[in-house]
């Protein structure tokens, strides 16, 4: 094995021991002492002896005279007592006098201040004073002198840094001999961004048997990690410094772990966390929280839960940062109930959530349409004296708008303004979109104008909302004009804006213009998405042009645009309405083969068409296949099947489906009740018919005139005159109202 002759002298060991004792009493960061195996293959250098120019006899007399005066008159202003000697005082005299008074730090400072008023001190004099300041534990002065070096004029980059270091080395042995002076210079280099020079200083000090302190090395690691390619550089230093004697602590590991996570290398960061204990370093809550946040940023929930479990096994409690990261991840994943459980756990541990946590939950509940839960969070937030900000209000406004509660959203918007919060572009756009979806275009444009008056610039999302609103009102030409206005303002159209106009053209029956728009946006470099294709396919399907719709699906697949289940449902509905049941069945089989899971709407189209054809065996087979695939029937599935069975006079099956539907808390449609009641009446099962009729009335649903008349006559014949009259009045009221709504007389 190769020997390492690079060993500290006993003198240096004593120096380090002395410093460590001093630093522990002063609270300074400690230096790391080398072991014999810590050094490279080069011999250790000794610090040079200080050998300044010798003073002449006349200079010696002058220096002695100054020293005597300042010692005797130490409490008098130096400007006054030394004024007669100013003209003869040279830079060399300062150093010679300092040699005489170096053991009296107060005199040293006063003399240095006096000399600085006359002229800038030499680099040598500055380094001498830094050495004396560190030796006197006046670190504030030492730091000040180091930092002043960078503010001096004519600093010549790396050359001046090199000269400064050489002077520190030159003055070290005879003026202070405290290694912290190099630590201080190392920190100054880092703070001024001279990281390469800091690394050179570290390496150079190794040659003299001095190791920069761990705290300063951590400072270097932290600063490196913020540079371009910082993760790579900090890892390199982390590995290289440990080879020469630096024993990294938890803070060091946390810096590197944080850097790795920032650069997306979370698995690598996690591996480093696992290695910490093997290297004798215990991870803390910050170590685990950083990993958790890294996985959260990547949207990986399972690793997060595993790390939290490991953290708790180590007896470490998650901190506010950890909880915040987990709650944000769960909200992004739409797991709001789990996110709220984490909130409760957070509070139970005495960690009180802040505005950000509550706003994250409010935003999450609003996005999934759970406005009640969002406002529950909002009330809890206020009861805890946590002040909501404009982001909180915007999230609530968004939730209300998505639920069609625009009036309530507008009220909350003005409440927000009244308490002094300012609405931004996103707040206005959210409310504008809400009004557009509610068909209140004038109010939406009024808000748009107000937004501009407030100095806010509408963005592409704002214009998309307005375009969509105009198109839904059938004002496609105005929407097109708005798009031109948008382009004139320098805003770049995106696919969502184009889709809004395309949807408007399709709804107005202008399929030719819609197809042209699709080609135009492709020429403009905007790639059509699944919504673009699905909208055009829906229009073709509704007009019975199934070949064109199918061609669009093929084009979509060829271009790598993934169809959604909505796309397939549009095509399925088109096939079924066109009587192309075999094509519909083939489409369903193809979806299952490709692993594309149909939903209830997909199956409902096929079931409905088989019911229309009175082929209840086929309809039942589709229904059973749906259940086997794990697709849960929805309310409309039962409505379709029940009406189909009633039409086929299979009242036993219809009654069974009705009971199953009610057990699942679905409410049958009025048409479903009507079909069941009429089916039972035809079978002379008046008890079942009467039971359904009363159930229907309790739910506020209206039977048709024929059923009202039937039950009115039955009650009249049974002598229930009052009930018969009530039914007649109810029939007149509800049936006449329904007829007037339908435009009948």
Automatic annotation (TrEMBL):
SUPFAM superfamilies: HCP-like. Keywords: Repeat. Gene3D superfamilies: Tetratricopeptide repeat domain. InterPro entries: PPR_rpt, TPR-like_helical_dom_sf. PPR repeats lie at residues 178-212, 249-283, 284-318, 319-353, 354-388, 389-423, 424-458, 459-493, 494-528, 529-563, 564-598, 599-633, 634-668, 669-703. It comes from the Eukaryota. Belongs to the PPR family. P subfamily. This is Pentacotripeptide-repeat region of PRORP domain-containing protein. The lineage of its organism: Eukaryota, Viridiplantae, Streptophyta, Embryophyta, Tracheophyta.
């Amino acid at each position: 094995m190769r020997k390492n002759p690079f060993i500290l002298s006993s003198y240096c060991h004593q120096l380090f021991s002395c410093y460590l004792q001093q630093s522990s009493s002063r609270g300074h960061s400690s230096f790391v002492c080398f072991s014999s195996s810590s050094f490279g293959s080069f011999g250790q250098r000794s610090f040079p002896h200080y050998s300044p120019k010798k003073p002449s006899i006349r200079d010696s007399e002058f220096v002695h005279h100054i020293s005597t005066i300042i010692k005797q008159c130490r409490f008098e202003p130096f400007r006054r007592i030394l004024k007669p000697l100013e003209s003869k005082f040279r830079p060399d005299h300062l150093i010679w006098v300092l040699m005489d008074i170096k053991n009296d730090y107060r005199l040293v400072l006063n003399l240095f201040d006096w000399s600085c008023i006359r002229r800038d001190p030499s680099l040598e004099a500055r380094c001498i004073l830094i050495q004396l300041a560190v030796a006197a534990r006046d670190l504030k002065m030492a730091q000040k002198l180091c930092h002043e070096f960078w503010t001096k004029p004519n600093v010549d980059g790396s050359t001046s840094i090199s000269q400064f270091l050489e002077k520190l080395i030159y003055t070290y042995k005879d003026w202070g001999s405290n290694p912290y002076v190099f630590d201080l210079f190392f920190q100054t280099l880092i703070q001024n961004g001279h990281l390469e020079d800091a690394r050179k200083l570290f390496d150079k000090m190794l040659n003299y048997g001095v190791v920069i302190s761990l705290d300063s090395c951590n400072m270097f690691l932290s600063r490196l990690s913020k540079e371009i390619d910082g993760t790579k550089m900090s890892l390199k230093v982390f590995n290289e410094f440990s080879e020469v004697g630096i024993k990294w602590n938890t803070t060091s590991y946390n810096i590197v772990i944080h850097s790795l996570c920032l650069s997306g290398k979370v698995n690598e960061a996690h591996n480093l966390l696992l290695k910490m204990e093997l290297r004798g370093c215990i991870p803390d809550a910050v170590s685990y929280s950083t990993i958790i946040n890294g996985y959260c940023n990547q949207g990986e929930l399972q690793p997060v839960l595993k790390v939290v479990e490991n953290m708790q096994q180590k007896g470490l409690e998650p901190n506010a940062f950890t909880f915040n990261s987990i709650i944000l991840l769960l909200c992004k994943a739409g797991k709001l109930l789990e996110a709220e459980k984490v909130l409760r756990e957070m509070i139970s541990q005495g960690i009180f959530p802040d505005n950000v946590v509550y706003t994250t939950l409010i935003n999450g509940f609003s996005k999934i349409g759970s406005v009640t839960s969002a406002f529950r969070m909002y009330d809890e937030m206020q009861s805890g004296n946590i002040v909501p900000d404009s982001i909180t209000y915007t999230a609530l406004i968004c939730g209300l708008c998505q639920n069609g509660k625009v009036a309530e959203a507008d009220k909350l918007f003005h409440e927000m303004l009244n308490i002094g919060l300012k609405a931004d572009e996103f707040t206005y756009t959210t409310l504008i979109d809400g009004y557009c979806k509610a068909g209140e275009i004038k109010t939406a444009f009024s808000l748009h104008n107000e937004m501009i008056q407030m100095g806010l610039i509408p963005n592409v999302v704002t214009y998309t909302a307005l375009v969509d609103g105009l198109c839904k009102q059938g004002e496609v030409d105005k929407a097109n004009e708005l798009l031109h206005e948008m382009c004139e303002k320098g805003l770049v159209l995106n696919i969502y804006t184009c889709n809004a106009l395309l949807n408007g053209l399709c709804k107005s029956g202008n399929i030719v213009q819609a197809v042209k728009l699709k080609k135009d946006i492709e020429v403009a470099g905007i790639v059509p998405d699944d919504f673009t294709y699905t909208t055009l396919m829906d229009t073709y399907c509704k007009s019975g042009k199934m070949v064109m719709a199918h061609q669009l699906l093929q084009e979509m697949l060829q271009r790598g645009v993934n169809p959604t289940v909505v796309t397939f449902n549009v095509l399925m509905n088109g096939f079924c309405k066109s009587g192309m049941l075999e094509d519909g069945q083939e489409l369903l089989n193809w979806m299952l083969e490709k692993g594309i899971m149909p939903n209830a709407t997909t199956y409902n189209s096929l079931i409905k068409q088989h019911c229309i054809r009175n082929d209840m065996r086929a309809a039942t087979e589709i229904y059973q296949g749906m259940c086997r695939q794990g697709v849960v029937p929805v309310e409309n599935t039962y409505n379709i099947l029940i009406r189909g069975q009633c039409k086929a006079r299979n009242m036993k099956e219809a009654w069974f489906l009705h009971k199953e539907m009610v057990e699942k808390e679905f409410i049958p449609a009025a048409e479903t009740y009507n079909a069941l009641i009429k089916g039972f009446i035809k079978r002379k099962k008046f008890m079942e018919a009467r039971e359904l009729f009363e159930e229907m009335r309790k739910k506020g649903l209206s039977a048709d005139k024929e059923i009202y008349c039937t039950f009115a006559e039955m009650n009249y014949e049974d002598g229930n005159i009052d009930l018969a009259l009530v039914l007649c009045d109810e029939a007149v009221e509800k049936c006449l109202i329904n007829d007037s709504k339908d435009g009948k007389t």
